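User: Structure tokens for this complex, please. No commentary.
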Amino acid sequence: MLVMNDIKKVFRTDLVETHALRDFNLQVDEGDFVAVTGPSGSGKTTFLNIAGLLETFEGGQYLLDGQDVSQLNDKARSQLRNEKIGFIFQSFNLIPDLDLFDNVDVPLRYRGFNAAERKRRIESALEMVGLANRMKHLPAQLSGGQQQRVAIARALAGEPRFLLADEPTGNLDTKMAHSVMELLKEINQAGTTIVMVTHDPSLARDAKRNIYVRDGKVSELHSVGQELPDAANA
Amino acid sequence: MLEIGPIFRALMRNKVGAVLIAIQIAITMTIIVNSVFMIVERNEKMQRQSGLDEANTFHISSVGFGEGFNPRSTVEADLAQLRALPGVVDAIQINALPISGGGWSMGLQTEPGAEHDGTGVAVYMVDEHGINALDVEVIAGENFAPSDIRWRASRSPTWPNKVILTKAMVEKLFPDSPWADAVGKTVYINDNDPMIISGIIDKLQAPWVGWDNVENAMLSPERMEFTATRYLIRTQPGQRDRLMPEVEEMLASSNKQRVIRGMRTVEEDRERSYRGDSAMIKILTTVMVILTIVTALGIVGLASFSVNRRRKQIGTRRALGASQGAILRYFMLENFLISSVGVVLGAGLTIGLNILLVNTFEMNPMNWYYIPIGMLVLWLVGQVAVYGPARRAAGIAPATATRTV
Ligand SMILES: Nc1ncnc2c1ncn2[C@@H]1O[C@H](COP(=O)(O)OP(=O)(O)O)[C@@H](O)[C@H]1O
Ligand SMILES: [Mg+2]
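Assistant:
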């Protein structure tokens, strides 16, 4: 479970203060699939970064699996990230100098699994995304959709409880986007909680639950099937 | 968790920079290790003692002129004056000076006859004060007695019948018997002229510091009836600089039929004789320092470049669970791998260059332990150089993963 109460996040530069999140409240339950929409600059990425322990916050309370994370040091945060959270990025973020096997291996090594265990997990994760036969390929040799599948395999190989995705289909064409979405739905069905930022309402509709962020706040909640406000397409 | 495998594989897909740095490390190691070896060798050579009380000894030349100049009475009067001077430990007339660069050498042999080879030896003509003035110790046999001392005429071909040798010379002449047993034995100079070894001294170097036989020296019991001659003066500690002008003035005024010149301390002689060696040490040190700095900067440059190029990758690794420590270790380890290739290559090149130097310049072969020490030092240079960029990499925010395109 992921609970945020009145989270505040301010970006300060010499000239301006940006209130990226103001009193952000959200509860994501076990097994949920939440699609987050909202205009550009509304704070979606900031929310996801805080949820994924990539960024700290100024006020409020964040409980990840019941644990208050605000006081943790870098090492503990990194470990928590590694064990409980899988990340998927808009531009895939595969490491260009590593083949698919080594890419999926990255989080597993930080986890400290032994070689046999890592190999087993890498193979089954790549199997799941249909790329087991391309383990020795470099990311550049794959299409965007395939790269994102590798990224999903990498995110899931450690069997995290949460999968956080920031516009995972943003760089893909419609067909590939939908096939990635199908994959995410399967993963969710298998028990992984997913929070996905997207600007594609048709994909958002496929999620179990939609939230809409504006001006750093969760302004409206929608159940599946309801129409999204126009601003979601911004 | 060490990630040697993936780091190595990633490096192999991006090798140009890494290979260049590895080669630079190898060349630097080759030059540094050989330089250090040469410096150590030169330094050892420069550290050798002459046997003299170097800090408190100087010498001065006297050149007589004119019909009435009497070398014998001049030397006798000069020595009497010098030895009586307060602050002077002892003074002698001598034909040449250790480590000064110029002197006499002869060959000594244990059997008479021109068919035998002689062993080269530096000749010092001194009277019974020689032992004290030169600050050497008679470790077997005895010093010359005043009655042993003869006058040597200019261009005389003959030699006295007694000689004192350095221990090193004795050991060369009689390698098969204990050195102390040489006292009383006869050696031959000029092929056939016998000299009986009356004493052995601990140490006295020849005038030529680059000579292989620099430890071979003999004392011949004589004073010289030469118009041009030299005195060696040993003073009490701290008195040398005060006495030098005093002695110069005294000798100049005591006898108007000669010129006093060429006054120099043994320390100056040492400095002059080893000037080439100290220059070489300075040059090699400079080259080493510059090379090390250049290599370190190269490592810093490559690492900074690769950190900047991989900002997003670093953010992604952080997002996937790498702690700051893990990122720091990644770059330290990557450098370690590059350095390892460099120092292994460097070890080979170092040995190669040394063999080349041994064959072309008659240098000594390098001691084996220079190689591992050199490898260790260059590994360390690499780790120190990469630490800054690695720290910056570790400081890259995890959010870089989501905030950059
Ligand atoms: N590192 C940063 N420094 C300053 N302002 C930032 C930074 N990151 C994000 N912001 C600002 O915070 C606000 C929210 O950004 P973000 O969460 O990325 O929005 P979204 O993902 O919804 O487009 C924006 O106004 C953005 O400009
Ligand atoms: Mg965003």
